[in-house]
Input
Amino acid sequence: MTTEPKLRHPEKAHKPDNVSPRKPKWIRVKAPTSAAYNETRRLMREKNLHTVCEEAACPNIGECWSQRHATVMILGDICTRACAFCNVATGKPAAIDPLEPENTGIAAQELGLRHMVITSVDRDDLADGGADQFAQSIRKVHELSPDTTVEVLTPDFRGKDGALEIVIAAKPDVFNHNLETVPVLYPHIRPGARFDHSLNLLKRAKDLDPDVFTKSGIMVGLGETFDQVLEVMDHMRTANVDFLTIGQYLQPTPKHVGVDRFVHPDEFSDYQRIALDKGFLHVAATPMTRSSYHADADFAALRAARLAARKD
Output
């Protein structure tokens, strides 16, 4: 019996490599060397859990795992889509692991997490897009590690009626879905998705549960303009998104779309200031910001900002 290989963007396999400019001095990555890093890695392997930290080649893995913070990626490690920026393998996914939700809960408990982020690959092959596995995982974390708050970073569930409702009913503390980039770049950067659909998913999540924090993020350095980023902020605010993340796109391999430019830290500071003025409860905007980077501290700040806003 043969198995289909995991391919990273097979449609680009014969195209010339994309060349990105040299990284500037403000892009710095810490090497994974600590004992806590190795212990986190051991636990993930022992529980047969995938992490987006590894699969997406996150530059912050050394820092986060050294603090015993790992983002579990459920539903396997093979994605049914092939976004131009993403390092996760594309191909035919394997069957869902029925032990994955419980092992996710055990990981939260053993790592002693105050806040856990659960994400996934896209599973367009499943009738619910993997929504039930998200719901089971949320409930297991609540059951096995009741002091741990849960953030989910979900796919768009495009064409999967009822999927969002399943996830929200499990009561995550934060519902995150990344818009990733500005609308004009979607055909090139995120061809399997639609900006309006993703935006509406965020709005519907808040409509279904007004108490859930909603969160979304974009990458910069893909060819967008400053004004286009501000327009995305306005779209997010119309959808009542609470928390915005903005980070520098870093090319995972030469086969992925190249970096258009490295955005200066001062521009990230401008984005943060403007976004807060537009009404976001919390904003993380730095070159190294990623969706789950410092997620526990950001959640604490987000909750404090809501309490302060309600007092006003």
In short: The two ends are 65 Å apart (CA to CA).
